[in-house]
Design brief:
Elements lengths: L13 H49 L3 H13 L10 E5 L8 E5 L6 H43 L5 H13 L23 E5 L5 E5 L2 H11 L5 E5 L7 E3 L9 H13 L8 E7 L4 E2 L8 E3 L3 E5 L3 H9 L19 E2 L2
Parallel strand pairs: 9-11
Antiparallel strand pairs: 1-2, 3-4, 4-6, 5-6, 5-7, 7-10, 8-9
Helix pairs in contact: 1-3, 1-4, 2-3
Length: 341
């Protein structure tokens, strides 16, 4: 057998060769470990992005009937003089299609023909608005999906742990990976319970504040929040005020807005996963004159329709910054939102 020195490159000794031979398997194992860890997180986010896109596709299909509803409303108004209040259906001439064919339209017998037509117009407008929102979110979702797919594909091409770690840092800066966990928090000298709100972290790392009870809602909204901060409250229910702190002219990320809406519904008398949530800037709110603490009024509130998402709620509650959910304590519910006439 040839001596070992014959297999060595010039200038390398046996000790160096042996150390590198032993380190090489460990280096490969570390590389695979890093790749797998990052790939799992990217794949989890990719699956969520694809589920969100599938949901938006369903919304788009549901909105396809908007123009048909508007057409029926037009025909109903044109034939209103032939329809009596209390009718449950009407047969009208279809001037958009075949005039020889009568089109059947179901009616609410409690309403007159013009009121029934207005109801159809409202449904049509809501569907068109939902379709526009879904289209914008779908474009953003497709960009997110494509970026995640590219990140996963590029990860396979990296051949050493250092390159993988550099890429992971780039992905964190771009928001595709969560920031590394920091050291354990020390308990503040001032107990967290002295704050009138619970603190949560959104998907984008933004702080979301949730009032603990009616008086705390009042203090959070009118004492600790700035005019440009975004305020949310479950529609037609009592519950917590939810505030997203914002800078001047700063826009809230869509995921943060949906996270805050999810918390507003959870910390309400409905305790729902999905539903309607009022959204406004704090500067648009006023204390309700003569009302209980936490009651507010606002002109022309915007309403966000949130789809049920149990995984979103679980993530938010797990990431509570002050163990707000350790005992599922909600305190006294806030007062219901009221719209000024």
């Amino acid at each position: 057998m040839a001596p070992l020195e014959e297999h060595l490159a010039p200038g390398r000794d046996i000790a160096t060769w042996a150390r590198e031979a032993l380190e090489e398997p460990a280096e490969r194992e570390r590389l695979e470990l890093l790749r797998n860890r990052i790939s799992r997180e990217l794949d989890r986010r990719l699956q969520r992005a694809e589920r969100r896109l599938a949901g938006l596709e369903q919304q788009a299909r549901a909105a396809e009937g908007a123009l048909e509803l508007a057409k029926r409303a037009d025909l109903l108004k044109a034939s209103a003089h032939e329809i009596s209040r209390g009718a449950r259906e009407a047969f009208v001439t279809d001037w958009y299609g075949d005039p020889e064919q009568k089109l059947r339209i179901e009616l609410d017998p409690r309403l007159g023909p013009h009121e029934n037509a207005e109801q159809l117009y409202k449904k049509s407008r809501r569907l068109l608005e939902a379709r526009a929102v879904a289209a914008a979110e779908r474009a953003r979702g497709e960009r997110e999906r494509d970026a995640l797919r590219a990140a996963l594909a590029g990860l396979v091409l990296l051949e050493d742990p250092g390159s993988v770690l550099e890429r992971a840092e780039e992905l964190r800066r771009d928001g595709w990976l969560p920031a590394p966990a920091g050291p354990p928090r020390r308990r503040s000298v001032e107990p967290t319970e002295s704050l009138p709100y619970r603190r949560f972290s959104s998907f984008d790392g933004r702080e979301i504040r949730v009032g603990r009870n009616a008086r705390a809602n009042d203090r959070l909204t009118f004492g600790l929040s700035k005019g440009n901060d975004l305020w949310l409250h479950a529609a037609n229910a009592s519950g917590s005020h939810v505030v997203i702190p914002l800078g001047r002219a700063e826009e809230v990320p869509m995921e943060t807005l949906h996270d805050a809406a999810c918390l507003a519904l959870h910390f309400s008398s409905e305790k729902a996963l999905g539903g309607e949530v009022h959204v406004a800037h704090v500067k648009q709110l006023r204390r309700l004159r003569g009302g209980a603490p936490g009651q507010v009024s606002m002109q022309s509130p915007r309403t966000l329709h949130l789809r049920a998402d149990a995984e979103r709620l679980k993530r938010l509650l797990r990431g509570a910054r002050d163990d707000a959910e350790s005992s599922d304590e909600r305190g006294e519910p806030g007062a219901p939102f009221r719209q000024r006439e």
